[in-house]
């Protein structure tokens, strides 16, 4: 009987301690409830714009793209010029060697000179190519930030709840054409960019 009373007290004590632990554990849980206002589907205003049209109709995008392409073309022409210069030099020296105008010592020095010129060309290609890539990345980053800012302003001005960016290889295979605001959104961005430039 004595053991029965002690066992009962011990079980009651353990049960009360366990309950306190569960309450304390619940006190530290974070509220994960979504703080989104419910909407009826009929009230939701969704639109999309075509990403592919940006490169054609958004003036700032077109200008940035043409500047990068110009730099790339200039770079390619310079590489071609340097390669042609090297090939012409090597052919001249080869012609001199075939005529017997070069000594063994001259040949050794020319070999070193050829290696130096090749290394210079490779270094130029790598360094200038990296500069162009960095410039492109910087331009695209600034452009995407600008498009994101303009899209926020456009949506707020037109009471659009969701603005979808639709492009080749994107997630949306089909969006109803009545939701297309590409022309209007690009016109808005061109005007906003003009206002941004003229206010500086």
- Helical region count? 5
Q: Rounded to an integer, what's the Rg over CA atoms?
A: 35 Å
Q: Could you tell me the strand content as a percent range?
A: 5-15%
Q: How many β-strand stretches?
A: 2
Fraction of residues in helix: over 70%
Main β sheet profile: 2 strands, parallel
Strand order of the largest sheet: 1-2
**Tertiary shape:** elongated
For the residues shown, what is the average pLDDT?
Answer: 83
Structural class: mainly alpha
C-alpha end-to-end distance: 93 Å
Low-confidence stretches: none
Which series of helices and strands comes N to C?
HEHHHEH
Q: What does the model show?
A:
With 200 residues, the chain is mainly alpha-helical. It contains five helices and two strands; from the N terminus they run αβαααβα. The chain is 71% helix and 5% strand. It has a two-stranded parallel ribbon with strand order 1-2.
SSE layout and pairing:
Elements: H1 2-27, E1 46-50, H2 54-57, H3 59-98, H4 104-158, E2 162-166, H5 182-198
Parallel strand pairs: 1-2
Helix pairs in contact: 3-4, 4-5
Core attributes:
single chain; 200 residues; mainly alpha; two-stranded parallel ribbon; 5 helices; 2 strands
Quick structural overview:
Helices cover about 70% and strands about 5% of the residues.
């Amino acid at each position: 009987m004595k053991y029965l009373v002690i066992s009962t007290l011990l079980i009651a004590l353990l049960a009360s301690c366990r309950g306190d632990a569960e309450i304390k554990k619940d006190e530290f849980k974070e509220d994960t409830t979504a703080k989104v206002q419910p909407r009826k589907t009929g009230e939701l205003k969704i639109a999309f714009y075509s990403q592919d049209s940006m490169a054609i109709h958004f003036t700032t995008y077109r200008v940035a793209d043409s500047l990068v392409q110009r730099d790339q073309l200039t770079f390619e022409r310079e590489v071609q010029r340097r390669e042609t210069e090297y090939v012409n030099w090597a052919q001249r020296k080869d012609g001199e060697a075939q005529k017997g105008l070069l000594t063994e010592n001259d040949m050794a020095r020319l070999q070193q000179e050829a290696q130096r010129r090749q290394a210079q060309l490779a270094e130029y290609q790598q360094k200038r190519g990296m500069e162009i890539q960095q410039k492109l990345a910087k331009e695209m980053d600034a452009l995407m930030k600008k498009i994101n800012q303009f899209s926020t302003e456009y949506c707020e001005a037109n009471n659009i709840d969701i603005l979808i960016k639709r492009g080749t290889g994107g997630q949306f295979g089909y969006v109803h054409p009545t939701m297309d605001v590409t022309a209007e959104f690009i016109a808005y961005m061109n005007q906003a960019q003009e206002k941004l430039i003229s206010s500086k």
